[in-house]
Amino acid sequence: MSTINDLPVSPKSVIRNPSFAELREMIADMPNSRLSEYDNYNVETRVLARSKASTYIVTDDASKHSDQTISIAEGKSWAAKQDAYIADQEMLVIEGYIGNDPSFRKPTRLIIEKSNANIAAMQKSLYFDVAAADAESFKPELTVIYTPNMKAEGYPNDRLIAVDLEKGVTRVMNSDYFGESKKGGLRMWNKMVYDAGGLPMHAGAKIIPVGSDEKCMLIVGLSGTGKTTTTFTKQNNSMPVQDDFVALMPQGKVYATENGCFAKTYGLDPNFEPAIYKAVTKSDAFLENVYLGEDSKVDFFNESYTQNGRAVFRMDAVDGAADASQIKQADFLLILNRNENIIPAVAKLSAEQAAAYFMLGETKGTAAGGVEEAGKFLRVPGTNPFFPMLHALQGNRLFELLQASPMPVYVLNTGRVGGGDAVEGSKKVKIPHSSAIVKGIAEDSITWTVDPDFGYHVASAVPGIADEDADLLQPRKLYETQSRLDEYAQIVDQIKADRAAFLAKWPGLEPGISASVS
Hints:
- The protein is of the alpha/beta class.
- The protein has twelve helices and 28 strands.
- It folds into three domains: 4-31 and 51-176, Phosphoenolpyruvate Carboxykinase, domain 1; 200-258 and 324-515, Phosphoenolpyruvate Carboxykinase, domain 3, CATH 3.90.228; 262-317, Phosphoenolpyruvate Carboxykinase, domain 2 (Beta Complex), CATH 2.170.8.10.
- The strands form six sheets. It has an eight-stranded mixed sheet with strand order 1-6-7-8-10-9-4-5, with helices on both faces.
- A hairpin with a 4-residue loop joins strand 9 (160-164) and strand 10 (169-173).
- The mean pLDDT is 94.
């Protein structure tokens, strides 16, 4: 495959595409790694979440990006510093594809310090493999150059993630959190998808059998909203296809990205998420920041170190997983919204509303975004923290695709109705509720009525949701029963005003999208 001479850097030494067995040996030598009771390695990292404040697009035209930028000259300066650092380091090279459809797979390369072999192993798990026949012709279009132990003084936390979209190179400095490797490739892939006429989505995908047919559902949502849970929960022996990113192309065509999953493990319960639990507890999974007791026993409910424990496993570790390259087209889109007041467990949207709720990206933050996001109400356009261009482009592109190839779109609340868990009378939208809704959507067995306050359709009844939980479907009824209608009305007015103000922040967004939430 690659040789040291074809790399964009000149390390002291290089190990190219080591096997998983070789990587496990390297991980065993890491001082912050421990072997768990499941014979897989857990690594405790210094950095516990993504570093948005330290992430910059390298460009001289900041007007083309909604997120922060640095100049090309500044990017070159740090590239030179990183190259000089690498000259004294032992580095690993991992190569593979983002995506497995030959018509839209992107050859990608990770170059990382050997001392952080766990990141190499986790990335190797997520890349689609390069076949022996393709090894000689493999040439990366995307490259992540990663030095977890090199400080970038002067940047937030002495950390820098410099994203050069034009060169297809992301440079990561002073973060040992695996997510920066995963995001490094996918963030640049986002632009490739958009430039090809599609929409990159922070979404899972699953195939749900319905009679003799198979329906493909896309599940959009921020980390911690239930995206992975919804993707892997079974309905009609459904088959998970993809966990984290897909490309939605014209005519509903779907492309996958990863051959595995980077799943949150905090609160992982085999009774509710058996497929994920089984995959995480296999010896070929790789753990990050999962709590281990003195006896190496895993405790997925212990948050004394962090709630952002993670695991990487390959899709072939999941029973019944399907191949994304076999998907004909997307049939449904779910937009997850982790809310705690008057958002129903499910609502059916028009095309304009779909684009608006997609742009609103409403949720409750988790530890995946760091302490500054955990527990706070957030709005993230497209629920995609990694879209590297102007955010208005996301909403406009979804509206464009839905107009050309209509498909049903729903918002799914995976939080609560009536207030937080400390509010008497509030109700949790539980995994079985969401699962019944997903099944009802796929089978077209839900009855709908128009919501008088927001104009979308809410469910009158969902098979599998008991009458005593019907107020999860129409929150107004819960507030009315509890004599809280004045509070409900105030929340309606506040949400509408806040949504209008948020959508107004993104110049160029189609007016009809913004108007649909007023």
